[in-house]
């Protein structure tokens, strides 16, 4: 599993969603997010920041990233 190359100090304010908040934003169960992350190392290309206490922080702009990726794939 590939780790994110960012640390909390290098990306202030970019990461800040818990897994539950991230799941609610994407309208799926948190369990689905965790399973996808475990199986693939990311949730549709979005990699969380793992804290030393094993908690995950997800990027706040993840919905926009997924929508941009969808628009790019539809245009092909």
Automatic annotation (TrEMBL):
GO terms for molecular function: DNA binding. Keywords: DNA-binding. This is DNA-binding protein. It comes from Roseateles oligotrophus.
